[in-house]
Amino acid sequence: MKKNKGISTEKLVKLFIYVVLIGLAIAIIVPVAWIFTASIKENSEFYGTPWSIPDGFYFQNFVEAFIQANMGEYLLNSVIVTGVALIVLIAVALPAAYVLSRFQFPGSGLLNSFVKAGLFINVSYIVVPIFLMLLEWDKVLDPIFDDGFFINNLIVLAVIYAATALPFTIFLLSSYFQTLPTDFEEAANIDGAGYFRTMISVMFPMATPSIVIVILFNFLLFWNEYILALTLLPGEDKTLPVGLLNLMAAERAAVNYGPMYAGMVIVMLPTLILYIIVQKRLTEGMTVGGVKG
Known about the structure:
With 293 residues, the protein is mostly helical.
């Protein structure tokens, strides 16, 4: 029999997938690498070709971004807001997801429906009602707090971040808990562990891959959030995304591009570091739910 010398359909599909993946990787890596390169250029180097290699490492751009543009202070604010928001979110969402996924009680179906309905609410649509609500609460507290309490408060912003992320987080964690067998809970019950002890010592450690996914996704959401931060922090306190846009506007007007790109690197670097740290756990979390025991 004569062998078919033509390229098989399977090979063509694989070749197409490789080409698409390589193209996607280039589309992501090139802009990021260009920003990192531009952040260490002197301002005069921007007037030549934009793809030129920098003559040296001009770290003064980062100094100007950190000190003169207050990006260091904004970085600290973003760390505080994101950290508090994640702690509040996990503390509320984990028990709620476990209870809603493993127990049936009066009103559990209604609560699950409310959680799923929250998935369709875009935060951008409720920014103004949230701001007006907090403004009214501040008016009530005017005799106690002269400068207000709910507006221009990093902790309040963090709590609102956590509240807006609850529906997605509870839904994701509930879906994961539903895939876990009940054998572990039954074994813990036989050993004398109560519901709370079983939840903390048995079920939560088993849900670690899903928790890592939740932390990573919500970290990116909180870290890069702009609209709520701009609306609820109208004073001097800013988070990184708001501070970055202010920096970009100021440096573009002054035709000083180095600090602008240095500010972009300051915003991107923590997310890249976090992704590198949790990459293995993230892959496990994406695949473990589909494994049948």
